[in-house]
Amino acid sequence: MSRWRSRHGVFSRVLTILTLVLVLAMAAAAAELPVSASPDLEKAVQALAKKELSTAGPGFDRMISDLSAPAFIRGLAFFGFAERVPESGAPGIWETMADDPSLLRFHRDTARRLIEEAERGGRDFSAHREVLPEWPKPGKVFYVAPDGVDGADGSRQRPFRSLEAARDAIRSLKQASGGKLPAGGVNVVIGGGQYACERTFTLTAEDSGTAEGPVVYQAKAGTAVLRGGAKVTGWKPISDAALRTKLDAAVRERVVEADLKALGIDDWGDATALRRRPELFVDGVPQTLARWPNEGFVKTGDILGSDTFKVWNRIEGCRDGKFKYVEDRPSRWVDEPDVRLYGYWFWDWFEEFQTVATIDPGEQSFTLAKPYSNYGYRKDQRYYALNIFRELDAEGEWYLDRGTKKIYWLPPAGLDVTQAEIVLSVFDRSFVTMTDVEHVVLRGLTLQEGRGNAIEIRGGADCLVRDCTIQRFGGDGIIVAGGHHHGVLGCTIHTMGCGGTRVAGGSRETLTAGKHFVENCHIRNISRLKRTYTPAVHLDGCGNRIAHNLFEDMPSSALRVEGNEHLIELNLIRNVVKESDDQGGLDMFGNPLYRGVVIRWNRWSDIRGGTQHGAAGVRLDDMISGVAIYGNIFERCGAVHFGGVQIHGGKENLVDNNVFIDCLAGVSFSRWGESRWLESIEKFLPQAKSPVYAQRYPELADLKQNPNVNFICRNLFVRCDDVFIRDGQVQLTALNKIGGQFEAEVATTRPLPALLFEPIPVTEIGPYASN
User: What SS3 string covers 71-106?
Assistant: First the structure.
């Protein structure tokens, strides 16, 4: 027996080794590189790596001179040629590149950047940070304090109580001086303490400053707090014995109530309507509106609606909202006055709240009230129910009875309710609006506990929101709509019902840059109430910049990008797309003329969500074309059918000089047939032929040709299951490599000659220290 065990042990070890070898062989086969579009370029680069310059030089020269070669191959040959000449000669080659209209625009722009870096003596990443003006010493200072008086003079000794009083004092100051501010402008110093937000602080064009004399509303960061909530006190056990019996026996004696009407709170809002729904916060933590199940989702049963349809002739759905529930629990809710459902009703990338009109326990069905969900309903889709008093059974859940004006809450075990700060959000309008305002700065404020948005800037120019904290809102943090060169800098935005920022500026018609920026911000834990299409930054227009931010902890995308010639650089994006499907950490969609967008030097980490289609680091969806994805790190990105980068039907995208580590695949594709491409781009052809677009993007003359063909070059793939998925062998590729951890680490510190790889500035990615 012992001899058999010994032999069995040897056999097992041999089998294990053989299995491991087989697995590694299969992995190597799965991760096979595609055929290069230019073997001659590969040979020249290999010769360069071996310092065989007499072979490399002529090889590069032949490709540069071959005008019939693909533009991206000629660009790479230029970079290779610059590598083989003395350092002093490289700028001359880059200048030739920059002036060659036959090359890819991004490669021309890279050549210009390299020229500038050579002139500075190397990379200087301060050049990739917003340069703020040196504000002068203010000519006048007003003071605001929580214990101030609005009838005072605004001096340090007699401060105003409100921002409105300070604003009106500045208006009076201008009127007394013929419409001008004193030299150096005006500072409003906002003292530490809490300020109840009972109306919107409104600024208009008359409240503007100038470049030489700005108006600055400034607080020491975190000390001046604008609050839109009301404290809830007077908690006691439930007074109605019959009501108590509706709750589970395990918790009914622990649930407490408070009378909101007695506290002077008379705005009940709506249970689920965005920017109207109240929220309960306990020591800054949002509590959960009573729901079932307490975590996660259940699935819809049979669809009972009569207005049926099919998608792609195979996915059945209906437009009217009636369906069966599978579990027995909803049959308990027939006496609940206002049951709401939240679900991904047809697609796993779009969700909505719905109101229940009736519950039929016999049929075990919900009938929903209009308006119905935008995309209709189908079986086996995720949803949960909320706003149900009977489901107040988990610590931290609460319920507002709009009939009795009472609020009910199940406190966490061990919490001293008398010592906790318990706040109900009440104010449902924007805290601050700035319309057609120029040269106004908001700095160091904390805004919190609103049902709506925090700050809105519309029109105007050169306004800045700096070092502010925005937290615990039901809507968006900061909205910038139109205008020129507004900025969000150094802000922290978290615990938001919707998104972090929405920024739109510049003209897509004239391709004029808006020059708005979101920089050095930390945005996290957003999209709590609207789970999709409420990203950290929703960017639109032309020529805006998102840089040096940290975006994390989101159920869907961190960035939604629309428009042209935006720059997305040096951001850290991690743990996003945790719930929705068919999304990316950055998502673009639906327009082949969204060109000139550059996504460079970002780090995309742990983006592995998705249900049916997947999650990607960067997702270019439905015709997105002409985007450059350069110098990024993708680690642990991609799921289901998506890689680190997912391209759906687009062309002429450049995926260049990136590192993919532990991804499902480096790049995945969902190719379109020619007929679908031609039909879909038809409506964009008039703009593509317009003088502005034809001049800026000459490649649009060939928009109808070569759908699905993209340029994939100089990428390093480390421990990825696949290099490409569904590429169809139509992509143009060169200088890609399957490597190991050592090469991945080298790629962030020094060049990889075998790939003409420019180091990725990993230490510069993410927020930086500022003063």
Answer: HHHHHHHHHHHHHHCCHHHHHHHHHHHHCCCCCCHH
Q: Is 190 exposed, middle or buried (0-12, 13-18, 19+ CB in 10 A)?
A: buried
Backbone torsions φ then ψ of 302, nearest 5 degrees: -60, 140
C-alpha dist (Å) from residue 164 to 31, 160, 175, 702: 63, 9, 16, 56
Please determine, for residue 4, whether its predicted confidence score (pLDDT) is greater than 60: no
CA-to-CA distance for 162 and 23, rounded, in angstroms? 69
pTM above 0.90, yes or no: yes
Q: What is the pLDDT of residues 527-552, one digit of tens each?
A: 999 999 999 999 999 999 999 999 99
CB atoms within 10 A of CB 698: 12
Q: Residue holding tokens 């950047």?
A: 113
The one-character DSSP state at 135 is P
Q: Phi first, then psi: what are they for 182, rounded to 5°? A: -65, 160
pLDDT for 31 equals: 66
DSSP string, 518-586: EES-EEES--SSS-SS--SEEEEEBS-EEES-EEE--SS-SEEE-SBS-EEES-EEES--SS-SSEEEE
Distance CA 502, CA 560 (A): 9
**pLDDT value, residue 3:** 33
Alpha-carbon 157 to chain mean position: 45
Start-to-end Cα distance in the chain: 75
Contact 633, 661 (CB under 8 A): yes
Cα separation, 210 vs 188, whole angstroms: 15
Please provide the average confidence, as pLDDT, over all residues in the chain: 93
CA–CA dist 454, 446 (Å, integer) = 10
pLDDT higher than threshold 50 for residue 49: yes
Break the chain into its structural domains and give their ranges: 1-26, 39-122, 140-228, 298-391, 556-764
Which residues of 116-211 form beta strands (DSSP E)? Answer: 140-144, 186-190, 193-196, 201-203
Residue 494: which pLDDT band, with cuts at 50, 70 and 90?
Answer: very high
Distance from CA of residue 518 to its chain's centroid?
Answer: 12
